Amino acid sequence: MSRIGVKLFLIALLLGAGGLWLGTRYSGLKWSLKTASLPIKYVRTEGVFQYLSKDDIKTVLEPLVTTSFLEANMQAIHLAVAALPWVDAVEVKRLWPDTIDIKVTEKKAYLRWGKDSLITEQGVIFTPKSLERHQHLIVVTAPQARRLEVLEIMKGIKTALADESLELAEFTINNRWSWTIKLTTGLEILLGREEQLKKLQRFLKTIPLLGKQQIEAMAVVDLRYPNGYAVSWKAQTPAIDWENMYAPQETSVAE
């Protein structure tokens, strides 16, 4: 090939490369303009909500959906919604060409945890804005690290009490693992740190002998004794005639 031919060949290669480079830049510009013309028009929230407020969801989403459809940060949207107290699970996806679809599952409160929080049956503790609609739930206060164990213990206590037509209101375990339970009647039962379930069963066996009236008159039952328990009575409780409570009743037979 002559020198002139080589020069023409090189010029052709350079023009081709330049054309390719210009084409790439042009395509990128067209894509940017197209992206900017795809705003998010709809944010669709799906789920069955009893306590979760859609206004709360809207508040956390508003700063995140003012961008274009393709530039919206799905992870940021997911994290923002998941951080709401009542949210259990979130699924976020784009729906072409202008919709962000968010599916939300609400937590189910199982018990009250301490004064300000709730806990699910799976042991997830969360703190909503208000507990006003959950005052009827059993209150559990215990070391958080052992919450799953505590939930299982509470279930057993609740069942044992229900067998005697008693209803649990509060269950407390302090840091020394000393148990206290409180019934809906107001009766407080001190179980101590050792053989708590055995002591509770011993007390429950005496309930048929004592009768419902005596149980309702009790303020505190202290089961922290090896072979018995002590009782504090509510104020203005009539004195109980223990000697004659179980004495055989005389029956008269007409002649």
Task: Describe the secondary structure blueprint for this structure.
Elements: H1 3-36, E1 42-46, H2 54-61, H3 74-82, E2 87-95, E3 99-106, E4 111-113, E5 117-119, E6 125-126, E7 139-141, H4 147-162, E8 168-173, E9 179-183, E10 188-192, H5 196-210, H6 212-217, E11 218-222, E12 230-233, H7 242-245
Parallel strand pairs: 1-3, 4-7, 7-8, 10-11
Antiparallel strand pairs: 2-3, 4-5, 5-6, 8-9, 9-10, 11-12
Name the features.
disordered C terminus, 9-stranded mixed sheet, 3-stranded mixed sheet, 255 residues, Ubiquitin-like (UB roll), alpha/beta, Rossmann fold, 2 domains, single chain, 7 helices
Shape: elongated
Radius of gyration: 35 Å
- Unreliably modeled segments: 8-35, 251-255
What is the fourth-level CATH superfamily of the largest domain? Cell division protein FtsQ/DivIB
Q: What is the correct CATH architecture of the largest domain?
A: 3-Layer(aba) Sandwich
Q: Helix and strand string, N-terminal first?
A: HEHHEEEEEEHEEEHHEEH
With strands numbered from the N-terminus, the spatial order across the biggest sheet is: 6-5-4-7-8-9-10-11-12
